Amino acid sequence: MHPIAQGPLLRVEGLSKVFRSGEAELVLFENLSFEVNRGTMLAIVGQSGAGKSTLLHILAALDRPSAGAVYCANSHVNALSEDDAAEFRNREIGYVWQFHYLLPEFSALENVAMPLLTRGQALSAAEPEASRWLREVGLEARGHHRSGELSGGEQQRLALARALITQPQVLLADEPTGDLDGRTGELVFELVARLHKQHGLTSVIATHNLGFARRCHRVLRLVQGKIEEVEPGSLQQ
After folding, report:
1. Distance of CA 224 to the CA centre of its chain
2. Nearest in space to 95 (alpha carbons), one of 171, 190, 185, 9
3. CATH number at residue 225
């Protein structure tokens, strides 16, 4: 991978998440602490149910921890009000889900433009920027197709363009290749890696694909509620 700039952009301190149901408690994870330097491409690995998605939700201010703190881009993320959290996500975070959540009634171009439109930007200003991002992900010719007319790989590339149109500092991707066949997943991962480098992103990617994780700068494994650093080259697919 390319050299990375120094200095943490993301800091996690003593993070815990506990789910309560009546008298029962499920400790998903506890006392997680780590930093992510600017420019790093970090993989989070672990078994299904280990808490990877919940951790990403907390990093993006979509969920709150039971204890601990997240700091990102000079914001104390889990202390933000709902309105401030929404503004933080729109400004600093690009989020890609395993199931892309594209809007089926809108065209590819309109889906990509949506984050700018929700900022109050005029369609006339948002459309050229959306067209540029469609080019970035190789979908320029598909701009007027509805999202349901695109293949699974095209839909995930479209979701990536939508996540990055706001020029965030941080890309969070939750199993971005998990719903794709092997070759299509490979192409999407290659695109994520290229955009990470070209746009100076700091990326955190939850993945069960250890082959992809090996190609990241760093790997953290969630296991039995704890987190451990793993040498990328030691991972076996």
Report:
1. 23
2. 171
3. 3.40.50.300
Contact residues for 207 (Cβ-Cβ < 8 A; gap 6+): 43, 44, 45, 173, 175, 176, 177, 178, 213
Report phi then psi at 75, rounded to 5. Answer: -115, 140
CA gap 201, 169 in Å, rounded: 5
Rounded to two decimals, the pTM is 0.90
Instruction: Specify the DSSP class assigned to residue 232.
Output: G
Q: Would 30 be classed as within a structural domain?
A: yes
**Is position 35 within any domain?**
yes
* pLDDT tens digit sequence for 48-84: 888 899 999 999 988 999 999 999 988 899 888 888 8
Q: What is the end-to-end Cα distance of the chain in Å, rounded? A: 19
Q: Does 110 reside within a domain? A: no
Q: Is residue 94 assigned to a domain?
A: yes
Domain range enclosing 79: 8-102+168-234
Question: What is the count of structural domains for the chain?
Answer: 1
